[in-house]
Automatic annotation (TrEMBL):
This is RNI-like protein. Pfam families: LRR_6 (PF13516). It comes from Rickenella mellea. InterPro entries: Leu-rich_rpt, LRR-containing, LRR_dom_sf. It comes from the Eukaryota. Coiled coil: none annotated.
Length: 452
């Protein structure tokens, strides 16, 4: 007897919220097919429609739905529209979708047919500023050119964007000034990855960009600037020493790699310093606040002088007094802050202030009891002893986050806090070595000295 029941096809749990690997999508009909697939799911986190022919009409149809009340229910975190023949009208609809969108993190728009006038460029960059995009790719859009990129960088002002891909967008030396001004400005300190490969930047432009990063930008961690036609080292008779473009392209690329290594070291040390400082600042400063501010309704006076600890007779246990406090808490606040700064030598004064304000605020204290529900760390099976399963938390300090399979909840919370207090990137301060050689020497065992 044959079994008449058919088993349902196996579908990976991670793919149930992903829509992708679709072929033959064309114009409005293709967009309506995608909309039907979206409506058939409870959640959609990834929408990959690459290598189709949606065009302007299909793009407008799709994003008008996503912008509607029904479409906003889906918290899509990644959208890929590579190679879809989308033009200005489609980009305009995408811009409408980006405004006040706090869920979309990745937007890939490579190899389309964008032709942006000034008004559309300003509309698009304003939408990016109003979104939470972290990764934006406009690569291989040959029709964008200098006018779009210069205007885009001039008006780009978002603290969320971390990666920007402008490779193969036909930018030339005319965009150099806008690039340099962006990298120097506070707006440019949020970008960690920048791709300028396969453009028409000349050797002098590349040197100016590298010199700008070396002197003024300490947050850029990855940059590609290859295939820019920069084999020539300047025009005949040009004074390269005076223009800051001396040397050769190999040396310039070498300098770029070293300055990015410097930025990477400074970023890691800044984050580690902030994490190391918080528990000490929390324990000491919040106690100081309690000592100097009696609770409402209390008749106790604020403690201004240290109280001598009682002697400890051998026959009697120490009896604590209600007014006994740690003497550090009675020091002037300026001296407390000065002392704590030695714990985190790579933080700026503004970063110290933000951490101190956060640490002494009781409302920022974590709950005493663990949450019964909600995201948590997923133990890495390889870190668990055989036959000894662990309950809750990371297995032996290891979870699946470092393996890039699941993002560790603790890592997410730490990164969120670092961004909140502005310690996710290095801020220049006096007394710290900016030279990569000195940083490497300190990394190999020497101690960096700094007077806060």
């Amino acid at each position: 007897m044959t079994n008449s029941h058919r088993t349902a096809p196996k579908v990976l749990l991670s793919s149930r919220s992903h829509i992708g690997n679709l072929e033959g999508l064309h114009s409005v009909a293709g967009a309506q097919e995608v909309i039907s697939l979206i409506k058939a799911r409870k959640t959609v986190t990834v929408l990959d429609l690459s290598h189709n022919e949606l065009g302007d009409d299909g793009c407008r149809e799709l994003f008008r739905y996503l912008t509607s009340e029904d479409g906003r229910r889906y918290k899509i975190g990644e959208i890929s529209l590579k190679d879809n023949k989308i033009g200005a009208h489609g980009l305009s609809e995408i811009a409408h979708y980006l405004v006040d969108n706090s869920h979309l993190r990745t937007l890939r728009l490579q190899n389309n047919a964008f032709e942006c006038d000034k008004a559309l460029t300003l509309s698009f960059v304003s939408a990016v500023n109003a979104s939470h995009l972290a990764d934006l790719s406009l690569a291989t859009n040959n029709s964008l050119s200098d006018a779009f990129v210069s205007s885009f960088l001039t008006h780009l002002n978002t603290p969320h964007l971390r990666s920007l891909d402008l490779s193969a967008t036909r930018i030339t030396a005319l965009t150099t000034e806008s690039l340099v001004n962006f990298l120097v400005s506070a707006r440019g300190t949020y970008i960690e990855t920048l791709n300028l490969s396969m453009n028409d930047l000349d050797f002098r432009s590349v040197c100016l960009i590298v010199n700008t990063i070396q002197r003024h930008n300490f947050s850029l961690l990855r940059m590609e600037i290859y295939a820019n036609g920069i084999a020539e080292e300047g025009k005949p008779g040009e004074d390269r020493e005076a223009s800051g473009t001396s040397g050769n392209i190999a040396r310039t690329i070498h300098d770029l790699k070293r300055v990015l290594l410097r930025n990477d070291l400074l970023t890691k040390k800044t984050r580690d310093s902030a994490v190391a400082l918080l528990p000490y600042a929390r324990a000491l400063l919040i106690q100081t606040r309690r000592c100097r501010t009696p609770p409402p309704g209390s008749t106790d006076e604020p403690i201004d002088q240290p109280v001598a600890l009682p002697s400890l007779p051998s026959s009697k246990p120490l009896q604590p007094k209600s007014h006994t406090v740690f003497p550090f808490c009675l020091l002037p606040m300026e001296l407390q802050h000065y002392t704590l700064k030695f714990i985190a030598p790579f933080l700026s004064s503004a970063q110290f202030t933000r951490i101190f304000n956060y640490a002494c605020e009781p409302s920022t204290l974590p709950p005493l009891l663990p949450r019964l529900r909600g995201p948590g760390c997923i133990p890495d099976p390889s870190s668990l002893p055989f036959g000894m399963p662990r309950s809750g938390g990371c297995g032996g300090g290891q979870c699946m986050g470092p393996g890039n399979s699941v993002l560790c909840h603790r890592i997410k919370e730490r990164d969120r806090w670092l961004a909140e207090v502005g310690c996710d990137r290095f801020e220049p301060t006096d007394g710290l070595p900016m030279d990569i050689n000195e940083l490497l020497r300190n990394e190999n065992g020497h101690t960096t000295s700094k007077s806060p």
